[in-house]
Design goal:
With about 325 residues, this protein is of the alpha/beta class. About 40% of the residues lie in helices and about 20% in strands. α5 links the parallel β3 (about 95-100) and β4 (about 115-120).
Length: about 325
């Protein structure tokens, strides 16, 4: 009897570890997020919210099977470097990298942890990858611009402000992709419209007013505000100074026209964040980032601020209003 009881007990115990294993929770996955914008920027906070919401819809619940580590670096290169190292040292399963300079900081810290990019101007000219279709390595994601955009900005600026004969390209060399990336198309468009194009580099926000004031000192001035983290962070200042100086300006994203800028032509940054969440989901499920193509925007909205055009004394051509995806009145 004792032997049979022992065997019965032993037989029941053999199933016990399996039952315990079946009840073990899924492994907690960790995602790092490094953002090159200010934490107070409401637009960027909404993008991050869309990223989180999409992950939740895909089955990743924070506090259950997912932990997200968010760092806000603003436009400070030193903070980017510090936070890049800090996140890499946490050994996350993947990192969402927001903006071009942030991506540069992360690439210098790791060649192995998967990185998904968003709000990055051009990963090829920045030296992050050699091929968009098959990037290889540890980086993939969603890029924003290609070289022909430069010529389109100048063309649209000339259409909305026919009196423009000179344009300056506003950018900060420390936080943008090389301007030469766009120069070929800008110079071609400038030649066809008999416009003189020049660069206007700034290195700090207190230089912005002097550059625009100098530009406005002669008639026919126009401004192309280039894709640049610095310009995004300082967009309210740039818009205000351009308005005060009566310089028509074109911008690279609608956040500027929403804030009072004249005209913008550029991709919708917001749409990239649910897409980035989908890529991270695929990576967490085993796909390699180097096999996922870096995608460009399908649609590039044209937004016109009619209130600003009236303040500048500009009559927007009917054909341009018809082309616009949205007119702000």
């Amino acid at each position: 009897m004792r032997r049979r009881e022992f065997i019965t007990l032993l037989g029941g115990a053999t199933g016990w570890p399996l039952a315990v294993c079946a009840q073990q929770p899924a492994r907690l996955r960790r995602i790092g997020v490094l953002i090159g914008f200010a934490e107070t920027d409401p637009a960027v906070r909404s993008w991050l919210g869309a990223f989180r919401d999409t992950l939740a819809k895909l089955g990743w619940t924070e506090g259950s099977n997912l932990r997200i580590e968010v760092r806000w670096a603003g436009d400070d290169p030193d903070r980017m470097k510090t936070f890049a190292k800090e996140l890499v040292d946490l050994r996350p399963d993947a990192i969402l990298s927001v903006t071009t300079p942030v991506t540069g900081a992360l690439i210098r810290e790791t060649q192995t942890i998967p990185i998904v990019i968003a709000t990055v101007a051009d990963p090829i000219s920045s030296g992050f990858v050699a091929n968009l279709g098959r990037p290889g390595g540890n980086l993939t994601g969603f890029a924003l611009y290609e070289p022909s955009m430069g010529g389109k900005w100048l063309e649209l600026l000339k259409q909305i402000a026919p009196g423009v004969t000179r344009v300056a390209l506003l950018f900060n060399p420390a936080t943008t992709v090389p301007v030469k990336f766009y120069m070929s198309s800008i110079e071609a468009a400038a030649s066809s419209f008999a416009i003189q194009a020049s660069t206007a580099p700034v290195h700090a926000k207190d230089e912005i007013e002097g550059v625009i004031a100098t530009l406005a000192g002669n008639p026919g001035a126009g401004l192309i505000v280039m894709p640049d983290l610095f310009n995004t962070v300082n967009r309210d200042m740039i818009i205000a100074i351009a308005a005060r100086s009566r310089v028509p300006a074109i911008y690279f994203v609608r956040a500027f026209t929403d804030s009072g800028g004249l005209i913008s032509y550029g991709p919708d940054f917001a749409e990239q964040y649910p897409q980035a969440a989908e890529y991270i989901d695929r990576i967490l499920k085993g796909e390699k980032p180097g096999n996922l193509p870096i995608q460009m925007p399908i649609k590039v909205p044209l937004i016109i601020n009619l209130k600003t055009s009236k303040a500048l004394g500009l009559d927007v051509p009917v054909h341009l209003l018809q082309l616009a995806d949205e007119v702000i009145e």
